[in-house]
Fold this protein.
Amino acid sequence: MSTTDILFVIINLAGALAVFLFAMKLMSEGLQKFAGSRLRHVLTKITGKPLSGILAGTGVTAVIQSSTATTVMAVGFAGAGLLTLNGAIAVVMGANIGTTVTAWIITIFGLGNSASGDGITLSMPMLIAAASLFFIFSKKDKMQYLGQTIMGLALLILGLNLMESAVPALSDDVAHAISAWSHWGFWSILLFIVIGAILCIILQTSSAMTAIILLMASQGWIEFPIALALVMGQNLGTTLTAQVVAMTTGTTGKRTARAHLVFNVAGVLICLVLFYPISNGIVALTGITSDNPTTPENRALYPWAITIFHTLFNVLTTVVLAFFIPQIVKIVEWMVPDKTDADGEEEFRLTYLEPTMLSTAELNLQSAKSEIEEFSKRVLRMYTFLPGLRTAKNDEEFDGIMNRVAKYENITDRMELEITKFLTRVGSGDVSQHASERISSMLRIIDNLESIGDAIYQIAMTRKNKREDAVHFDAGLNANLAHMSELVQKALDVMDANLHDYDHVDLDAAYAAEHAINEYRDRLRAQHLDALKLGVYDYAIGNAYSSLYALYEKLGDYVINVSEAIDGSRKHADD
């Protein structure tokens, strides 16, 4: 084969692979958009039992064809308190099983039919059906997404056929080169596990790797045991890619990624122990003959046998390791301990927003929702510092609390900036009207959360100025402000509860809490004006006192704005 011929084959292969990858992306995005917000509702129904998490992870991944997206949603729910870390690990285990659906799609619709030309024959009417949906239902989003899914599947089949047509000319040369590494017994299995992991990391997609393995086996490049080793290596490669992504996430994200790694490494070790019994069993089940493994008859059976192994491998390891989820949790907590700074305070970091965007607005917004819930936790923690400013016994204690308030105020500014940038990026893409409205609601939520942080800082600064000016309140004024602080705390608690459950927003409780704050502010203001007229306290005391209860009331306004925006976001998601 000349250099020119080889170059043309490589170009054809690259083009066919590009079609395949584009088809997988198109089909995955269409499925995710078609499923919509129902995906996250599935995960919220998970019970404490591992089986429910595994089934949910399997189902969601099978639908959206993206184990990464499923993992991100699991991390988000774990941080929001809707899933424990144990539950998130169970979901990730299920996602491993869900990814095997890709192999079945390729085998059933692609390689299993390509020999007779049925693959291309099937893809043509599918493309026509997809185009019909686009034109006939041009104003109906759901039908557009269904058309996108069908078109993606049709192009996937077409891409597989193009890949098959490009590789035969290389088969003899490649088979000869690979055969030199394939006859070292168990060492060959270990070698090709490593090769499979490296190739998967390079390709950055397990779907493409699955297609390549099935194609290589069906063309006779590799024997059956080597194909199984590559499948095992592929599973390791996907976890290593996740580690890179998790480097920019918080503790929960890192622990989930480490759990994925621990789980898959343990799965490969289990499968290595049972490798030959499993391999021989599948050979017997599918009817592959051992006298000449690369005969056309055997090669036609390889995609089915490899797909069966891929599924059995993930199901078997999940069933075994599901009993050891508590131990996996302890391992990943040891691997990723909680980080604190020199003062014992948790460091600032975004927990759920990934550096790479997911393929649909719905899943990106779920990550943003989880980050907003984390934002709320920061604000509530910041509010708990305020009582210490009144009770501080000395300047050192007072200054320490002020430093913490200032630190958290800076964190709220940074969180607002980063979440806003993320939502802006999501909104600049291809989003539906509902997603656009939900983004607007979220932007309003984070704006008001940041304003709450500013109000808390202003209260702290007022306390600081009061202390520096040697202004002292009597027991009555301190009691009034303490009661006002309690009313605001109740409003914050209602707001935080609403942020954790968009589907059950308690606006009545939010309005009742705000009404109580406003009513008490009015009472304090009336008493304050009377006290000034009667000369009960001087101007400096009165100014500090009125500034504080006014700031508390202003803080309450921002709180109710958050609950109102949450309710608007829920309505947009449900429409």
The CA atoms of residues 361 and 434 lie 10 Å apart. The chain has a mean pLDDT of 78. DSSP finds 23 helices and no strands in the chain.
